[in-house]
Write a structure and sequence with these properties.
The protein is an alpha/beta fold and 256 residues long. The protein has a single domain, classed as Uracil-DNA glycosylase-like domain (Uracil-DNA Glycosylase, subunit E, 3-Layer(aba) Sandwich). Helix content is 43%, strand content 10%. Helix 3 (59-68) runs parallel beside helix 7. The chain is elongated. The relative contact order is 0.12.
Length: 256
C-alpha cells in the first residue's frame, strides 16, 4: 500500500475519533477494556433519592396571622397594605381600606374598588359611591354624619382594584377574608350591610343577591342585611324599589 494513502487513512481515522470525543489516543500501557469487570454503581442514599419536598407558604394562614396581630384599625391597614400574596395587588395603584366613622353603628361591606376608588384610595367614591351616599341620605345616614348614631363605616371585601374590574375568585376572597373578619371585629358595628354578591360569598358563603337581599341574617354574631350594590342599581333602575325597602328595614332596626 502506498505510504501516502496510509497517511490519509490514518488521519481520517484520527479525525473521526476526535469528533467522537476522544482526548487521549495512547495510554502508558495497553488496556483491554473487554477484560474489565463492570463496577456496579453505588446506590444513592435514600435521602438523596427522595425528591425534595418544599412546602409552599399558605397565603390564608399568613393573612390570618397578620390580621390577628393587628391591635387596631391603623395597624390592620398597614398589615393589609404589606400583604404581597394576592396577585390582584400587583395591578392596583392604592390599597383601599375604609371610609366613614370607625365605631359607627352600621358597617357597609362592598365588593372591590373601581377605577375612581383605586385612584382616590377610598371606597365608594365613583358613580356607585354617589348613589350610595344618596341612598344613605334618604334615611338620614352618612359617612360624615355629625350624629355618630347616624354615621356609617364603609369598606370592601377586596382592598385592591381587580384587573378590568373583574369579580375576585374564590381563592382571592379566601386569602383576604381574615383581614375582613378582623376589620369587622375592630370596627365593632352594631349592624352589617353586605352590598352585592362578593361580600355575601365571603361572609355568608352564599351567592345570588337577588334571593338574599332583604333577608336579615347573622355574620360574626352581628345582624346582617344583604342589599343590591349601588352599581347594580345604576344598571337596573327597576331594582331601586327593592333597595328602598331594604333601606327602610335597616332604618327600622336602627330605631329599635
Amino acid at each position: 500500500m502506498d505510504s501516502q494513502n496510509t497517511y490519509w487513512q490514518d488521519r481520517a481515522a484520527l479525525e473521526w475519533q476526535v469528533e467522537l470525543g476522544v482526548t487521549d489516543a495512547i495510554l502508558d500501557a495497553p488496556l483491554d477494556r473487554y477484560d474489565l469487570d463492570p463496577v456496579p454503581a453505588k446506590p444513592a442514599p435514600v435521602a438523596e433519592m427522595a425528591p425534595a419536598v418544599v412546602q409552599a407558604a399558605d397565603p390564608v394562614a399568613i393573612a390570618r396571622a397578620a390580621a390577628e396581630a393587628a391591635p387596631d384599625l391603623p395597624a390592620l391597614a398597614t398589615a393589609m397594605a404589606a400583604y404581597e400574596l394576592c396577585e390582584i395587588k400587583r395591578g392596583a395603584r392604592n390599597a383601599v381600606f375604609a371610609d366613614g366613622q370607625p365605631g359607627a353603628r352600621v358597617m357597609i361591606v362592598g365588593e372591590a374598588p373601581g377605577r375612581e376608588e383605586d385612584r382616590a384610595g377610598k371606597p365608594f367614591v365613583g358613580q356607585a359611591g354617589q348613589m350610595l351616599d344618596r341612598m344613605l341620605a334618604a334615611i338620614d345616614l352618612g359617612r360624615a354624619h355629625a350624629d355618630k348614631d347616624r354615621a356609617v363605616y364603609i369598606t370592601n371585601v377586596m382592598p385592591w382594584r381587580p384587573p378590568s374590574n373583574r369579580t375576585p375568585d374564590a381563592d382571592e376572597i379566601a386569602m383576604i377574608l381574615p383581614f375582613l373578619e378582623r376589620h369587622i371585629s375592630l370596627a365593632d358595628p352594631q349592624f352589617i350591610v353586605l352590598m352585592g354578591n362578593t361580600p355575601c360569598q365571603a361572609l355568608l358563603g352564599q351567592k345570588g343577591i337577588t334571593g338574599l337581599r332583604g333577608n336579615w341574617t347573622e355574620v360574626l354574631g352581628k345582624p346582617c342585611l344583604p342589599m343590591f350594590h349601588p352599581a347594580y342599581l345604576l344598571r337596573n333602575t327597576a331594582a331601586k324599589r327593592e333597595a328602598w325597602a331594604d333601606l327602610l328595614a335597616l332604618n327600622a332596626r336602627l330605631k329599635t
